[in-house]
Write a sequence for this structure.
């Protein structure tokens, strides 16, 4: 049974929040879209979505005072799930169009996909590899497909922060996890049943 | 492994799905929201809506449709047709589309691609190219002309060169339609597809001419496409998406089976 708690979808002016909101409603959650740092500090759980450029996103988060609010919430034990750009923002630094500092909730870097012969962006349905148990992945089989669209990937400093891998000519971290901070490079809200299950799992994490 | 994508395309006019041959002789093919929901449940990987509504309140009509589609499906979808400003794009993305496609506005002002991709991110900017074989056709030195307005207007631009330029401007994907094949069911122009796929390092979506499941397989094996777009064979019940996926899977082509 999913506890009826409020999930705040962090609004910092980047990306399609509607599909995330709708997916959470379907998963039985009570999503609230908000860019108010106070709401973020008091949320029961947090989703950091986003598409677009890393530098702009960090600038927006800082302008709205959301970077501090997110760090504070995480320090207080609030579960946080970053999606796509939202995953990348959790990391220490990015090399996207210059060098940028991230939220540094998971130590590591954001790098450009730069393998000879690979089409970039990596677009489409790809599989997750690995079987390390985690409440976020309850009931999601190894090899499940999720929808990806990205040109950058994350590289955690500590391999223990990698929860799942994905192969696209090389192997990259597609789900990261450090304590109660998770991030997925793909879009669960666009990934049919597997994505719905992942979001439902996140809603039940205590 | 990254799966090859199967993308049903819905040409929409005044809120209805239509299908014609080379963008003329349009016949009604149903309600776009219902069609989208059906394709989602059948296992389509993405959807593309190309809007050809001409009325003055088109933006409202299209935005309403996009919102209804977004509420019903849980796969990504692209919307194209008549988008000329960043505000046009913003309205579609805010209504719930994942990507937009640019055609005429990009041909007329290539800088609009870079402007849009800087603002919204390359990953949501698809550049649609309607290409027609340039005559006289020389198989040893093939050339395609870029057309707009459903093939009615020829542009003084070579299509492969335009694809390369569009990618350089920041397009995230190329939706490549053969105007010679569109609506004919004769198969994709895989010479064109392979040529463009070999020249750009972004994904190419093959479009125009799909009449059978074999054609879709050919788009991947001969055309080197990342995705195949089809309309008639799915709209009129000739094949389901799941049949298509099973067929490709048996040929050893990586697809997402649902």
């Amino acid at each position: 049974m999913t506890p009826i708690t409020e999930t705040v979808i962090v609004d910092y002016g980047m990306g399609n929040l509607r599909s995330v909101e709708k997916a959470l409603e379907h998963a039985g959650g009570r999503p609230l879209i908000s860019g108010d740092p106070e709401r973020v500090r008091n949320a029961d759980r947090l989703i950091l979505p986003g598409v677009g450029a890393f530098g702009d996103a960090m600038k927006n988060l800082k302008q709205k005072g959301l970077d501090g609010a997110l760090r504070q919430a995480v320090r207080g034990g609030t579960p946080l799930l970053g999606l796509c750009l939202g995953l990348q923002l959790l990391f220490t630094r990015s090399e996207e169009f210059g060098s940028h500092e991230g939220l540094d909730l998971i130590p590591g870097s954001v790098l450009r996909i730069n393998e000879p012969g690979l089409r970039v962006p990596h677009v489409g349905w790809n599989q997750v590899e690995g079987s390390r148990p985690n409440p976020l992945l309850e009931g999601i089989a190894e090899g499940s497909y999720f929808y990806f669209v990205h040109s950058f990937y994350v590289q955690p400093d500590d391999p223990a922060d990698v929860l799942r891998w994905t192969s696209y000519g090389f192997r990259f971290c597609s789900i990261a996890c450090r304590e109660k901070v998770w991030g997925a490079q793909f879009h669960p809200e666009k990934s049919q049943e597997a994505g719905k299950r992942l979001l439902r799992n996140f809603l039940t994490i205590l | 492994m990254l799966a090859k994508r199967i993308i049903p395309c819905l040409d929409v006019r005044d809120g209805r799905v239509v299908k014609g041959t080379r963008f003329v002789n349009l016949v009604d093919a149903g309600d776009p929201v219902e069609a989208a929901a059906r394709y989602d449940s059948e296992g389509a990987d993405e959807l593309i809506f190309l809007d050809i509504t001409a009325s003055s309140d088109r933006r409202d009509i299209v935005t309403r449709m996009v919102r209804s589609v977004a509420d019903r499906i849980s796969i990504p979808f692209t919307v194209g047709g008549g988008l000329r400003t960043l505000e046009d794009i913003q309205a579609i993305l805010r209504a719930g589309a994942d990507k937009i496609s640019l055609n005429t506005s990009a041909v007329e002002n290539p800088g609009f691609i870079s402007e849009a991709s800087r603002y919204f991110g390359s990953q949501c900017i698809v550049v649609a190219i309607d290409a027609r074989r340039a005559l006289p056709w020389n198989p040893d030195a093939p050339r395609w002309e870029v057309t707009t307005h459903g093939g009615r207007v020829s542009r003084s631009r070579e299509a492969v060169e335009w694809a390369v330029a569009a990618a350089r401007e920041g397009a995230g994907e190329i939706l490549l339609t053969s105007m010679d094949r569109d609506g004919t069911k004769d198969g994709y122009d895989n010479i064109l597809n392979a040529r463009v796929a070999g020249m750009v390092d972004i994904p190419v979506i093959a479009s125009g001419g799909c009449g059978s499941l074999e054609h879709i397989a050919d788009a991947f094996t001969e055309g080197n496409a990342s995705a195949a777009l089809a309309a008639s064979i799915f709209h009129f019940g000739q094949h389901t998406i799941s049949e298509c996926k099973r067929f490709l899977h048996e040929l050893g082509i990586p697809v997402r089976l649902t």
